[in-house]
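__Record contents__

***
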Amino acid sequence: MTTVTTPAPAARRTPAPAGPWRLARAELRRRPSALVALGVVVLFAITALTAPLLSALGGWRPDEFDPSAVDPYLGGLPLGPLGGVSAEHWLGVEPVTGRDLFARVVHGAQVSLLIAFAATGIVVLAGVAAGVTAGYFGGRVDTVLSRLMDLTMSFPSLIFMIAMMSVARDVDRTVLMILVIGLFGWPGIARIVRGQTLSLRHREYVDAARVSGASDWRILTRDVLPGVAGPVIAYTTLIVPGMIATEAALSYLGVGVRPPTPSWGQMIAESVAFYDTDPVYFAVPSLCLFLTVLAFTLLGDALRDVFDPRGGRA
């Protein structure tokens, strides 16, 4: 008699928890506004990276004058409708000089985003280093670093930036702006990282690593830093629009990058005198600045809800 053996049912596998990046992708798909914001960020990033190619495609350098595009008898106003928009000048020209607005906008994106991203990098590196050190070691180290954070945050940073940028003459203005903006931006993220580190340093796996003889450096790099990476990523995205706005404000006040190097803040400052006679000149860089700041803000809000949900509800 043949015995038929019924195969045992396969054990059900418990699905692995979704990783942070998978959660981030799911959150972006759930929010159409975040997807649009991501597209705008990518578009302006590509524009900044390919600015020389784009301006060459348009046929004009950002510092090249075109006297034939402006009317000398009307105070240098652009010829043609919408600020001189034509097949030769896709977004029109600057009044008086006739410089191509498209070339200056794309090169302005390169300067503005370079300063914003580089300053954000300094802020994140300094803030994470100070926050992790203060939260992990505690004691006098925490006291000294916390008081330094308080001192830096209470300092009138904008006034100091204006003063330093005004007195510095024979220096690279782009590098100086990166350093000055980064100097005052690190305490905010340092406080966030310090709080996260305080909650992590007494976790079971950290205590186990310490008991097993692991060095402080190994514990910080293997156990603590991965635990604070999520909030840092989220808040880094929220820092960038502030950096862009700060660069634009300094350039608008005349202490940022110097002509003929273009930046959005500088272009907005120059266009104020023509907002009623040539509104396109004012609208184009202002719209670029507005869209970039808004896109980074919406994207940062979505990432914060994924990586730091408690901060999003606060």
Remarks:
- The CA atoms of residues 124 and 236 lie 7 Å apart.
- The two ends are 72 Å apart (CA to CA).
- DSSP finds twelve helices and two strands in the chain.
- The beta strands are 70-71, 77-78.
